[in-house]
Design goal:
The protein is an all-beta fold. It contains no helices and four strands.
Length: about 70
């Protein structure tokens, strides 16, 4: 599988790397209408049981986000 660089500007994410690069091993992107905003989704990257279609990137949501520890 080809290595893909994923850009991200969310500096408070645990996977945020220098140069706005995501350092997560896997990325999960979901349709906004399916996203549950009451919990972090990084632990659910194995979610592969459905397929959706959207027309614009604005209709998507990165579920890989995991906030950095504040300590």
């Amino acid at each position: 599988m080809a290595k893909v660089e994923v850009s991200c500007a969310i500096a408070n994410c645990s996977f945020y790397g220098e140069g706005n690069v995501c350092t997560a091993e896997r990325i999960m992107v979901e349709v906004d209408s399916h996203a549950r905003y009451d919990t972090e989704m990084s632990s659910e990257l194995g979610e592969k049981n459905h397929i959706d279609k959207v027309d614009t990137s604005a209709q998507t949501c990165c579920k890989t986000f995991k906030p950095k520890d504040r300590g």
